[in-house]
Amino acid sequence: MAEQLRDLWDFADPAGSEQRFRDLAGRAPEPVRTHALTQVARALGLQERYDDGHAVLDALDAVDPEARVRRDLERGRLLRSSGDEATARAHFEDAATAARGVGLEELEVDALHMVALVAAPADRLAAHEAALARARAVSDPAARDWDASLLNNIGMVHADAGDHAAALVAFEDALAARERIGDASRTRVARWMVGWSLRHLGRTDEARELQLALKAELESAGENDPYVDEELELLG
Question: What Pfam families does the entry give (predicted)?
């Protein structure tokens, strides 16, 4: 079921994703119907329709443990996106605890990753590292694949603190994780992050070579990325 929900997502098109989840909910039995509707709420949040998202969740009768976890997780995302991080954190923590209790490892790690995003700045790195440790300890491959996002987030915490050497280590590990997972688009983003970090470290020749390789790869696919172009302009 989790894989079916993932396959319906296009985060670049939340309105289209919303409709696909509504269509699934309209034809699916429980608990799939409820699971799909939690994703409707998430898609509404990505469209900044927070009240509509909360209304969808309010109407749900969470009929199984996974539905309850998903409802808490998406409630937290709506709250975080609308600016209420303190209340959001409580929902994420509840979702992580409940998911672990029933062996829903992917949802547990997702919830822990959200806890880290709303942690106090002084606690954020430790929270990301705790989520990463959990991702590496679980048996579910989809849960383990959260390591790529978590390593990227760890890199950004280091970069925000001005420690670009530590950031580069994390971004390189994130790139290795993306290459293992095999998503070409996200792997390109991870390569861009490595190049961005190299530029901040003054390793401009390496950074330029990486960004030029990305640009050539994009052009061969008939695509363009303004962030790659921006880096190349900065690199001269």
Answer: TPR_12
